[in-house]
Amino acid sequence: PIEAQTTWNTGYQQQFTDEALPFLCTKGQWEPDLVIVCSGYDALQSDELASVSLAATDYGRMTQQLREHLTRHSSKPPRIALGLEGGYQLSPKAIGGNLAAAVLETVKELVRLDIPA
Fold it and tell me: Is the pTM of this model over 0.90?
């Protein structure tokens, strides 16, 4: 479990890198044909229901690391499907970004486009 108020730099990245990514794909042991991600954006710092403090850009970092991990640890090209599961902060002035900004960061990294925020 992730402790309340955890940020990308204070534990979330380490858990993602050390626990989540190896669980999804380990070369020679488990190489999925498709990774389906239930994209929950309710860990945004600005989300009133959140107990984790991620910024919109952190979702882009996770997507980038996922894509890179699958590329390095699989003999197959990465295939990733995303589904929107949660995220309730819609205010354009939200600290750390809102749902739209987090989804945009995710998609930018998924397709590697340079879209201005």
Answer: no
